[in-house]
Amino acid sequence: MRRRTVLVTGATAALSPPAAAQTWPTRPVRIIVPNPAGGSSDVLARILAAELSGRFGQPFVVENRGGAGGNIGTEATARAAPDGYTFGVGTVTQWVTNQFLYRSLPIIPMRDLAFVAICWENANVMIVPTAFVPSRSVAEFVTWARPRPDGVNFASSGVGFTSHLLGELFGQRNGIRVTHVPFRGAADAAPNMLRGDVLFAIDNLASWLPLIESSQVRALAMADASRTPLLPDVPTFTELGMLGFEAAVWAGFVAPAATPAPIVETVSTALRDIIARPEIAQRITAAGARPVSSSPAVMRQRAESETSFWQNLVRISGAQL
């Protein structure tokens, strides 16, 4: 009888959620976004934070900590108490690319962060200000920009971001003298582009879609593996014979490395369920991104498998911070 009691008790414990996940959360949860307010990561993080708040009955509060290519906010996430009350939102830039850009980092993301879930992918688009650049195709832009004695300024969403690397790569590949002008996100870059202070960018579609739709900037090419249904007439760089620009930026949630695994899995499962809902997937798509979801293990595997790609992109661009 005692043996049966022990076996039944053990089976019940194996089937029951761990205590950490059962009692969590009992107070507000912080979500650190390593970018300024108004950018695509911020917008999409807030959509998901609102859904998490409703699911768990506690506020999930977004806190913007931009700067240093996302390193400031990423470090803040990694150094937070691993108690399940701090998560971070970021992209492959912070978790993989920055280690090849910066001479030293305050943390090692692959060691100091727990991966939670991939939530979306941002396609990148090459855009020019309609009022200042007459070009209607990439070929026309190259012809227009190459002979300019002072070259052309290009905008990025920050030093070391994919928009920085792709802009440098574009100039190098096409024999155009380019000058990098970094901003604290696309929201800061946009007014400068509309004034003609910068003349192109290869940045994430989500941030620039409203200006494309209003014809204030013109989309010339997608830096992605395929065209987007949001801009079906805009070709990819690959279609134009320019290889190496298929650099979709994937993003999602992370947590401090020692965060209890049951809490990480609980949030990961919740995010997968939320993104699977058609109305949420539609909101992500309308914001210019692709809804994606993954387990923590798959997210880590993707980061590891793409390391050589991003390292090579940094090498080709010549960027060093």
UniProtKB/TrEMBL annotation:
CDD domains: PBP2_Bug_TTT (cd07012). Residues 1-21 form the signal peptide. InterPro entries: BUG, Bug_dom1. This is Tripartite tricarboxylate transporter substrate binding protein. Belongs to the UPF0065 (bug) family. Keywords: Signal. It comes from Roseomonas alba.
